[in-house]
Amino acid sequence: MTTDASLDVVGIGNALVDVISHETDEFIAAHGLVKSAMTLIETDRAEELYAAMGVAIETSGGSVANTAAGVASFGGRTAYLGRVYDDQLGAVFAHDMKAQGVHFVNPPVHDGPPTGRSLIVVTPDAHRTMNTYLGASAFFCPDDVDAEIIRSAQVTILEGYLFDRPESQDAYWTASKYASDAGRRVALTLSDLFCVERHRDGFLPLVRERVDILFANEAEACALWGCDEVGAAVERARAEVAVACITLSEKGSVVVSGAETHEVPAHPVDVVDTTGAGDLYAAGFLYGYTAGLPLPRCGELGSLAAAEVISHIGARPEISLASLLDG
User: Fold this and answer.
1) What DSSP assignment string belongs to 263-326?
2) Mind listing the pLDDT tens digit for each residue in 49-77?
3) Confidence at residue 269, expressed as pLDDT on a 0 to 100 scale
4) How many domains does the chain have?
5) For the segment 65-108, what is each residue's pLDDT rounded down to a tens digit?
6) Less Cβ crowding at N or C end of the chain, within 10 Å?
């Protein structure tokens, strides 16, 4: 890896605020929510539910935002690019990212929809009902890409979730060109099976032409390459990207690079909530990768970070990940 970078990792993704409140089942029924599901909602519905929710915890969220926070928790130097509106939740997002050691780059915008949010209702049985409003985050475009930040980072990681709008796809090509031209690395996390199924034809050329490090679970990898089983997808990944990390849930992960194949076991843990597992796996791996560690150790750090986040409720570490490292 290059050593002249002032940042280890910069992430680009949906800048969302997680708004978490504890409510009754009667609240779920009264507002017509689909219990335990994740539902995408529009502006009016987002404002209505936000106003109705009781005392809540508001924190920065989003897949690659979680990854950036995880790298920072290990002690890495990180930044984040994302689009928020000039409103209360936009200020919450910016403050919270900075508080976690992540340099949040983009100033708030003054036109378009309000800041995106994931409204999370936790009922007494510990079920999480999520209503997600993408808002301003979905309109990330090439103008939101800070060329100097991209050039200053060893790795830029892109989030598959932000691939729905044409301007965001253009932003990914723009950011990846800045990175490639500067001799930096580009990583992509495929994010979600349905995301891959929607955008396979858009993902494939990006993966082949610009992506150096790919993160995917087995279902996402199989969907991307049209394979019936994960072994075939691993071989396709080996042929098309410099490094591929395919996560296999409780079976751990497999990391391939050229002729190398490394099977990495899952870190032992009592699972409480799997939210954020893939995000934190990427954080651990990229922390190790940018520190110049061998690929098997990078995978181990990914497993370690994923285990910490699934041991409790929420998608961010509850302790310093640096404290988990060997002396």
Assistant:
1) EEPPPP---S--TTHHHHHHHHHHHHHHTT--HHHHHHHHHHHHHHHTTSSSSS-SS-GGGGS-
2) 999 999 988 989 999 999 999 999 999 99
3) 86
4) 1
5) 999 999 999 999 999 999 999 999 999 999 999 999 999 999 99
6) C
Domain assignment present for 70: yes
**Is residue 117 in some structural domain?**
no
Which ranges of the chain does DSSP label H, i.e. alpha helix? 25-30, 43-52, 63-74, 88-99, 147-152, 166-181, 193-209, 218-225, 230-240, 277-290, 295-309
Percent of the chain with pLDDT over 70: 98
57 falls within a domain: no
Which residue bears the tokens 């150790």?
Answer: 297
Q: Residue 203 is part of which domain span?
A: 7-14+63-106+139-324
Provide the residue type at 317 as one letter. P
107: left (phi over 0), alpha (psi -120 to 50) or beta: beta
> Has residue 327 got a pLDDT over 60?
no
Closest among 127, 123, 135 to 54, alpha carbons compared: 123
CATH number at 270 reads 3.40.1190.20
Q: What whole-number distance in Å separates Cα of residue 13 and Cα of residue 157?
A: 9
Report the alpha-carbon distance of residue 296 to residue 302 in Å, rounded: 10
Nearest partner of 281 among 149, 190, 219, judged by Cα: 190
Per-residue CA distances from 224 to 100, 157, 192, 251, 305 (Å): 33, 18, 11, 21, 26
Domain annotation covers residue 197? yes
- Tokens representing residue 215 in the block: 């993160």
What pTM was computed for the model? Answer: 0.93
Find out whether 136 and 114 touch, Cβ atoms under 8 Å: yes
DSSP 85: B
Angle at 55 between CA 99 and CA 29, to 5 degrees: 125
Q: For the segment 242-257, what is each residue's pLDDT rounded down to a tens digit?
A: 999 999 988 999 999 9
pLDDT at 122: 87
